[in-house]
Amino acid sequence: MQEIHTPVLVKELRVLLNLKSGDNAVDATLDGGGHARMMLEFIKPNGKVLGIDQDKNMVEKMAGEKNITAVLGNFKDIDEIIKKRGFKKIRAILFDLGMSRWHIEGSGRGFSFGRPEEPILMQMDARSQKNAALILNTCPESELVRIFKEFGEVRAPWELAKKIILARKAKRIYSVGDLLSALGIKNKKSLAKIFQALRIAVNNELEALTEALPKAFGALDVGGRLAVISYHSLEDRIVKNFFSTRGKILTKKPQTASQEEITKNSSSRSAKLRVLEKI
Ligand SMILES: C[S@@+](CC[C@H](N)C(=O)[O-])C[C@H]1O[C@@H](n2cnc3c(N)ncnc32)[C@H](O)[C@@H]1O
Predict the structure, then answer these.
(1) Which residues bind S-adenosyl-L-methionine (predicted)?
(2) Which of 77, 220, 226, 267 is the most buried (most CB within 10 A)?
């Protein structure tokens, strides 16, 4: 697997996760294990990381890494996954809700509007029956409007839905290029919102996050820390609301990437880290 993901906000997490030798930690979004390996530096030699990812490519890649147990699963089931593995004394749980570089550049699943030749699937879990082509070709107009409005906050969602309905009457929307031709939109900001909306819908991202946060908080030891990195306001709102209901908030203002990090890794630009301590 090429296109290794560069972990974001590592410097900030090193301080805020407050991990010590012998602690255990969970990386709920394992990917290439960048954050998980950083956690290991602090908890070695006896501490362990439980890593969860819904994409089997990530889990297979991490198999056999010392002191990291990679589990295929959705973080919405984090409590069951932790219980099944008998994982205890959890001092930190991290969610990094960004897009994996591999998903965009290596998966061939149509996550990017810059790759018109790819099939428009957008599943992070390739086993999932739901995909973007299915949504685009079968959802009623009202559902398309809802997706673009709620998950993309686009200005005229009904116009997009109309264009899609018209295009799919003539020809099935199969690839990223088919969608781009149907929409006739070139503006990158608008396209980013449209692609974000479809991705959120395909992967049930907001439901999974809403379900996972209380379960993760429940699994932490007292004094343990829950850290979430979000990348857009829809996610951040869920995290902020949840954090306001319990524990001690350690990030009054969310932490963001330094200019130096943004220059080196542009995907850190919109990252916002919030950390909550269980008291
Ligand atoms: C931005 S990457 C995480 C980066 C990683 N922590 C690192 O060290 O750089 C996000 C990963 O989370 C996974 N993911 C997204 N939603 C998930 C969910 N609901 N359950 C499990 N894994 C998920 C994706 O498959 C992807 O590999």
Answers:
(1) 33-35, 53, 75, 96, 103
(2) 226
Q: Where are the domains of the chain?
A: 10-102+206-277, 131-203
Exposure string of 166-197, with b = 16+ CB inside 10 Å and e = fewer, is: ebbeeeebebbbbbbebbeeeeeebbebbbbb
| Mean per-residue pLDDT of the chain | 96
What atom in ligand 1 is closest to the CA of residue 33? 8
31 annotated to bind ligand: no
27 is in an annotated binding site: no
Q: Which protein residues touch ligand 1 with a CB less than 6 Å away?
A: 5, 7, 27, 29, 31-35, 52-55, 58, 74-76, 96, 98-100, 124, 208
Cα separation, 212 vs 102, whole angstroms: 24
- What pLDDT is recorded for position 3? 61
For residue range 1-33, list pLDDT tens digits in order. Answer: 446 789 999 999 999 999 999 999 999 999 999
Predicted local distance difference test score (pLDDT) of residue 131: 98
10-102+206-277 — its CATH code? 3.40.50.150
CA 194 to centroid of ligand 1, rounded, Å: 21
What is the distance between the alpha carbons of residues 134 and 162, in angstroms, rounded to a whole number? 16
Cα(146)–Cα(142) distance, integer angstroms: 6
Statement: residue 130 has pLDDT above 80: yes
Domain at 131-203, CATH from 1.10.150.170, 3.20.20.30, 3.40.50.970, 2.130.10.10: 1.10.150.170
- Residue 33 annotated as part of some ligand binding site: yes
